[in-house]
Automatic annotation (TrEMBL):
Keyword Signal: no
Keyword ATP-binding found: yes
Entry-linked Pfam families: ABC_tran
Keywords of the record: ATP-binding, Nucleotide-binding
Family: Belongs to the ABC transporter superfamily. Ycf16 family.
Residues covered by the ABC transporter domain: 2-246
Protein's UniProt name: Fe-S cluster assembly ATPase SufC
MF annotations from Gene Ontology: ATP binding; ATP hydrolysis activity
InterPro entries per record: AAA+_ATPase (IPR003593), ABC_transporter-like_ATP-bd (IPR003439), FeS-cluster_ATPase_SufC (IPR010230), P-loop_NTPase (IPR027417)
PROSITE patterns associated with the record: ABC_TRANSPORTER_2
Gene transcribed to yield this protein: sufC
Length: 250
């Protein structure tokens, strides 16, 4: 699904990612953890194709296709979803209308017609029901006055509607309360299948009590310094990141 080989990237003359290798297979959930400033958000941005970062070396493949040269939008149309790609407030545009437009734009990019209105409505109803989202929420203006939990609900709804092959959820928000964590985790758990994959990026072990990952990787100073199964997250919880740092520098 996703293969990253020897990825080096940064801004201007500062290297942030210093040789990342990662293989994510269909059906898998990977967690990327690491202390603040280790490069987690940079990694998600570089995979998504954000222009502010420059890739100096290495390759990124999505389903075997080298996507390294594609613009962020093209990567999204190929089935890559990055959380918080639409954090902007859009007064007057509802949660529903926004997702309708996103879906039809994605279809257009593939040379497809708009999704028929009745099919769209059916899909919206199904996904809203699956995720316990009520109708009132669907008619609210996008992100306008949304609480942390509502932002997450919207994000998970977008994820459910767009059905990406690979979702990267960068849980950067230090203000994530337990409700918001549960919304994300329930959504991911309901949406995970053998045909998609999820990369959850987080500073917090707590999220992984709700989303049980198949693999855990620890990022430190732009490199994956340790990989393991879910037990690694527990070990980190108990011993802290200093333990990994010490192992690396020893
Ligand atoms: P994390 O998400 O793990 O906290 P980041 O990827 O946000 O880490 O940042 C990693 C390092 O790269 C930090 O030292 C940060 O200051 C730096 N960095 C990230 N993005 C930029 C940028 N756009 N310009 C300059 N430095 C950046
Ligand atoms: Mg940070
Ligand atoms: Mg971050």
């Amino acid at each position: 699904m996703l293969t990253i080989k020897n990825l080096h990237a940064g801004v201007e003359d500062k290297e942030i990612l210093k040789g990342i290798d990662l293989e994510v297979k269909p059906g898998e959930v990977h967690a990327i953890m690491g202390p603040n400033g280790s490069g987690k958000s940079t990694l998600s941005s570089v995979i998504a194709g954000k222009e502010e970062y420059e890739v100096s070396e290495g390759e990124i493949y999505l389903e075997g296709e080298d996507i390294g040269e594609l613009a962020a939008e093209e990567r999204a149309h190929k089935g890559l979803f990055l959380s918080f790609q639409y954090p902007v407030e859009i007064p007057g545009v509802s949660v529903t209308n926004f997702i309708k437009t996103a879906i039809n734009e994605s279809r257009k990019a593939k040379g497809m017609e708009d999704m028929p209105a009745n099919e769209m409505l059916k899909k919206i109803r199904e996904k809203a029901e699956l995720l316990d989202i009520d109708r009132k929420f669907l008619s609210r203006s996008l992100n306008e006055g949304f609480s942390g939990g509502e932002k997450k609900r919207n994000e998970i709804f977008q994820l459910a509607m767009l059905e990406p092959k690979l979702a990267i959820l960068d849980e950067t928000d230090s203000g994530l309360d337990i409700d918001a964590l549960r919304i994300v985790a329930n959504g991911v758990n309901k949406l995970r299948s053998k045909d998609n994959a999820v990369v959850v990026i987080t500073h917090y072990q707590r999220l992984l009590e709700y989303i049980v990952p198949d693999f855990v990787h620890v990022l430190h100073d732009g490199k994956i310094v340790k990989s393991g199964t879910k037990e690694l997250a527990l070990e980190l919880e108990a011993k802290g990141y200093d333990w990994v740092k010490q192992e690396v520098t020893a």
